[in-house]
Amino acid sequence: MKPGLHFLALLFFSVASYVQADSINYGNFDGDTLTYIDVTETSTEPLPLYGQPEIFGDNLSFPGTGFVTESNNGEINFLDGRLSFMIEADPGTTISSVTIREFGAFFTFGQDSIASISAIAFVETLEGDLFSGTLDFINFGSNVPQSGDWIRELTITFPETTKITLNLDNQLFSFADTPGVAFIDKKGVDIFPGGEVIPEPTSAAILALGLMGLAIRSRRR
Q: Which residues have C-beta within 8 Å of that of residue 204, sequence separation ≥ 6?
């Protein structure tokens, strides 16, 4: 089987093999204008993969300390970890997008060596609508060692709402030629919600009166 087919097969079987998985619940995190609820990672691999998150303003960051896979001389390795939580907007604010940014490093040597990441995210709004998106990175090896950093970003947009549920499935894959090496890691996962602040009723009324006054003055002139 070719390395690419190995990769597709492993992706397929990972969907059906999520049994006896362990999980870590990191709890809730209060941001400036929203709250992350029941932040949980799940995997059949030893945890943590995403790691203890930190909140900065309204953004949540994971160090990704356990997301590493390496193969040598014909080995195939696969790592799968899932992340889930709710985001609830504070009164007077809404959520209309989520941006997921991931980054790490890679190294490959060997004509057919492969190092790659793949991720899919699902967002369900309070109204029951479902939205999704994917991101990926893949490096094909050569007879000259290749190394560097990778970064990918995904933005999912949806109608304004006050609460969403986000599920993120991350996968790393490495296949090493013989002789060869393939290494890839994930150094961080950042979550950036986007939204708007709803004007207070009194502020909206004052703004409307001001606009009416300007319109009246313009007509008199």
A: none
